[in-house]
Specification:
The two termini are about 25 Å apart. The chain is globular, with a radius of gyration of 21 Å. Helices cover about 30% and strands about 25% of the residues. The strands form four sheets. Strands 4, 6, 7, 8, 15, 16, 17, 18 and 19 form a nine-stranded mixed sheet that branches. A six-stranded mixed sheet has the order 10-2-1-14-21-20, covered by helices on one side. The protein is built from 13 helices and 21 strands. Helix 1 (about 15-25) runs parallel beside helix 10 (about 205-215), helix 1 packs parallel to helix 13 and helix 6 (about 120-130) crosses helix 13 (about 390-405). It is of the alpha/beta class. InterPro entries: FAD-dep_OxRdtase, FAD/NAD-bd_sf.
């Protein structure tokens, strides 16, 4: 597979555009296929919390989570909600989801795999941002986790496993937190700062800049919706779109939550689901954190962006078609006001923006990165769940290595699509 290839990359989100940049670097010809604007509001990348959290190595499912499923079904506004109407369709995915976190050993294996993918991600993104002419959009200044008590931290399996995989952090008592974050509600009495992590000041603008960088480097952007992949034997012939076929001899499926139908078109029925996410953003807030932070009790990330103070988090399992439940965004807003009591309660509604989108998630919390079974001309790169933006930098490098037949820079066995086939 050495030499230049014509690579059709399906999806112009963070994973797709970085894959395009890295494939161009390898000498390939690239066509980006996406009906939307890179970094536009329709994309999961746009609504990302903006964290470049190289320590986000813990999958959503942990031991004992099965006990909480009845609560998820009964509470449509909880941190993880499952719509009753979608339960029959989601049930096979949910069973795999629960099984993946059944024991601590399984969660630990996932943590080691994700650490390989995410380690040094802020540095990789900073380099890409500089190449794309937007270095100001990526900052490597650490992130903070805040807890109501030290016990909330000590009893968290996730932090024990982060230590095991090599993550380091600085611990803060209540006084040290007050010095760093004077506007934070005093109910938070313990915090940790992960200094290796970073943040993106505008995920949508960052992805748009990366797409423009890829196009300036020779990539072509075709505005079309891909519907399938056409093979001749085990050789890829074309990507099928709603407006016709695009001939190519290699393809990358990086269509996020919409990747499932594409993999099925070549005989890989992978268990991809959408974890529907929301964010709320306050423009020109009078108060807020000095650093980016996550509140353990609200399961919510708070991050300064160039457009305002953004709060993002929670998960809703309801599929691709159901209408958004905007009450979930209002819950995020209420948590934000609770965390920062100095925020005025009479902020005009015109300054409070909400967003809803689709995280592409595999049930074990590990993305699919590898070849299709039907053809090594097809590379899968989707299913990143909560680590799409941070994980996109190394994923793009891995995609280019697979396209060129080079050894991948990290072990890809944990990411192999065949684990579900």
């Amino acid at each position: 597979m050495s030499g230049s290839r014509h690579v059709a990359i399906i999806g112009a989100g963070a994973v797709g555009v970085i894959s395009a940049i890295e494939a161009l670097r390898e000498g390939h010809r690239v066509t980006l296929i996406d009906p939307g604007e890179p970094g536009g509001e329709q994309a999961a990348s746009y609504g990302n919390a903006g964290w470049l959290s190289s320590h986000s190595v813990i999958p959503p499912a942990e031991p004992g989570i099965w006990k909480k499923v009845p609560g998820y079904l009964m509470d449509p506004l909880g941190p993880l909600a499952i719509r009753w109407s979608y339960l029959p369709k989601a049930l096979p995915w949910l069973v795999k989801y629960l099984y993946s976190g059944w024991t601590e050993a399984r969660v630990e294996r996932t943590a080691f795999a994700l650490r390989d993918l995410l380690k040094d991600a802020p540095l990789l993104h900073r380099t890409l941002a500089e190449e794309a002419g937007v270095p100001e959009l990526v900052e490597r200044n650490g992130v903070m986790h805040v807890f109501p008590s030290r016990g909330n931290f000590d009893n968290d399996l996730g932090w024990r496993l982060r230590k095991k995989v090599g993550v380091e952090w600085l611990e803060l008592n209540a006084d040290e937190m007050r010095q760093r974050e004077p506007d934070l509600h005093p109910r938070y009495t313990f915090g940790v700062v992960v200094e290796e992590a970073g943040r993106c000041r505008d995920p949508g603008a960052y992805v748009a800049a990366l797409a423009n960088h890829a196009i300036a480097g020779g990539a072509k952007h075709v505005r079309a919706k891909a519907t399938g992949l056409r093979l001749n034997g085990d050789k890829l012939v074309a990507v099928v779109t709603e407006t016709g076929e695009i001939a190519c001899d290699a393809a990358v499926v990086a269509a996020g939550a919409h990747s499932k139908r594409l993999t099925a078109s070549v005989g890989d029925p992978l268990p991809l689901e959408t974890e529907r996410g929301y964010h709320v953003m306050i423009e020109h807030p009078e108060s807020g954190p000095r650093s980016s932070m996550m509140a353990s009790d609200a399961k919510m990330v708070v991050n300064w962006t160039n457009k305002g103070l953004r709060a993002a988090g929670t998960v809703e399992i309801a599929g691709l078609e159901a209408a958004p439940n905007w009450r979930r965004a209002e819950i995020l807003r209420d948590h934000l006001f609770s965390m920062f009591p100095k925020l005025p309660k009479d902020i005009p509604a015109s300054r409070i923006k909400t967003w809803f989108g689709h995280r592409p998630s595999m049930p074990d919390g590990i993305p699919c990165i590898g070849h299709a079974r039907a053809s090594r001309d097809i590379v899968y790169a989707f299913g990143h769940g909560h680590v799409g933006l941070v994980g996109s930098a190394r994923t793009g490098r891995l995609v280019a290595q697979l396209l060129s037949g080079k050894p991948p820079e990290i072990p890809l066995a944990p990411f192999a699509p065949e684990r579900f086939l």
